Structures are given as structure tokens and as C-alpha cells.
Amino acid sequence: MMTDLFSSFDPSLIQTSSNTQSLNTLLIWLANLIPIFAIQSFLWIAPTRTSQILSVPMTIMNDQMSRTLGKSIKGMTSIISPLFLFLILTNWTGLIPYVLPASSHLLFTLSFGLPLWLALMISSAKNSISSFTAALLPEGAPDWLNPFLTLAETISIMVRPATLSFRLAANMSAGHIVLALMGSYIISLLLIQNISLFIILMPAHMGYILFEVAMGMIQAFIFCLLLSMYSEDHSH
């Protein structure tokens, strides 16, 4: 018996045979290894068709980084561009049945958002501590308002990794929960032989799958875009 909605993605809680449970568990592990296997194509000397396709999102993120001050931070572009590709592939693994993408877990998203944000903060303070602290106070503010503005700006900077990670995890979880509910409802219509309503809802379900494909790319882009925008506050 499933305890909550997230349990529908856990094959160990589904009442099936032991062989089917083992197969579903193996499928989950293989699905989460897909991004790693896909990125391995870049290790070939001659570019393959797969590597050429995978290089498109990295080129897009390289262009985005070139429009920000993050391009002057050593190694920033080399981290954000592969991360963009990795998040896209990770988000798409959720389209596999009974697989909840790793990016829907807060621990996974925090493992990327928190270290990168902290690295930017440490690098900025090490580069110029005066510029780093001066950025906490907006220009042209009245003197009596300075303590409150400094406190508000400090809080907004401190919550950045949490909001960054929560946004990706929440959006990916919500999207795939809706996808699972639609799939369950359509299957129930087929079982009760309600063919007319099944024919009506099936195109909507297929359209939502395409929407989730686009959403996986958009959420990965927003995650990396915000990181590139955070680099704008880096002291130079």
C-alpha cells in the first residue's frame, strides 16, 4: 500500500513479483547513469554525431556566460556549461516510467547550488574584501536606512543557494507527479473500457510529455542562468 504520492515512483512499494521489483530497481540505477554515459562521448578523439548534438546546449551556455562578468572568473564557464548539459539529461530521466529524476531531490540540487554559490562568495571576498562588502549597500541610499538595507541584502544573498535548489527540485517533482497522475488516470480509463474519454485525453497526455521535455531544458537553463547572474556580483 502506497503511503503518499511520491511512493508511486518507488518500485519497492508496488505490489508486483520480486523479479519485476528487481528489474524496476535496476532501471532506476541505469536511468540515473544515462547523463554520465552520454557525456563520455566527448572523450572520443573524432567528434561523433552524439557529441555534436550534446555540444549544442554547452554552446548556448557558453554564449550566456560570455555576456556576464562570469567569463572573467577562471573556470566558471568550464563548470557551468557541462552542468547545464548534465542537468538537462538528469531531468529527462524522469520521463522513464517509475523513475523520479535525481534533480527532484533537494540533496542533489543543493550539492550543486551551495558549493558553487559558496565558491563565488569566497572568491569575491578573497579578490577584494572592500568591493565585496561595498556591494551589500546600494548606492544613493539615505544614511538612516543603510543598516536595514545592508541586512536585507545580506539575507537575500544568503538564501540564494536555498531558493536556487528549491526551485529546481520543486518544479521537477511537481511536473512528474502530474505526469504520473495523468498516466494513472488514462490507464484506469482504459481498464474500465471508457474508450471515448481515453481517446480524448491521450493526446493531452502526449502533449504534456513534450511539455515536460521542454520543462527539463528550461529548468536546467534557469538554474545555470541564475548562477551566471550571481557571478555579476563578483568583485573585480
From TrEMBL:
<feature type="transmembrane region" description="Helical">
    <location>
        <begin position="79"/>
        <end position="100"/>
    </location>
</feature>
<keyword id="KW-0138">CF(0)</keyword>
<feature type="transmembrane region" description="Helical">
    <location>
        <begin position="106"/>
        <end position="123"/>
    </location>
</feature>
<keyword id="KW-0812">Transmembrane</keyword>
<dbReference type="Pfam" id="PF00119">
    <property type="entry name" value="ATP-synt_A"/>
</dbReference>
<comment type="similarity">
    <text>Belongs to the ATPase A chain family.</text>
</comment>
<dbReference type="GO" id="GO:0046933">
    <property type="term" value="F:proton-transporting ATP synthase activity, rotational mechanism"/>
</dbReference>
<feature type="transmembrane region" description="Helical">
    <location>
        <begin position="208"/>
        <end position="230"/>
    </location>
</feature>
<dbReference type="InterPro" id="IPR023011">
    <property type="entry name" value="ATP_synth_F0_asu_AS"/>
</dbReference>
<keyword id="KW-0406">Ion transport</keyword>
<dbReference type="InterPro" id="IPR045083">
    <property type="entry name" value="ATP_synth_F0_asu_bact/mt"/>
</dbReference>
<keyword id="KW-1133">Transmembrane helix</keyword>
<keyword id="KW-0496">Mitochondrion</keyword>
<protein>
    <recommendedName>
        <fullName>ATP synthase subunit a</fullName>
    </recommendedName>
</protein>
<keyword id="KW-0813">Transport</keyword>
<dbReference type="GO" id="GO:0005743">
    <property type="term" value="C:mitochondrial inner membrane"/>
</dbReference>
<keyword id="KW-0472">Membrane</keyword>
<keyword id="KW-0375">Hydrogen ion transport</keyword>
<feature type="transmembrane region" description="Helical">
    <location>
        <begin position="177"/>
        <end position="202"/>
    </location>
</feature>
<keyword id="KW-0066">ATP synthesis</keyword>
<dbReference type="InterPro" id="IPR000568">
    <property type="entry name" value="ATP_synth_F0_asu"/>
</dbReference>
<dbReference type="GO" id="GO:0045259">
    <property type="term" value="C:proton-transporting ATP synthase complex"/>
</dbReference>
<feature type="transmembrane region" description="Helical">
    <location>
        <begin position="26"/>
        <end position="46"/>
    </location>
</feature>
<dbReference type="InterPro" id="IPR035908">
    <property type="entry name" value="F0_ATP_A_sf"/>
</dbReference>
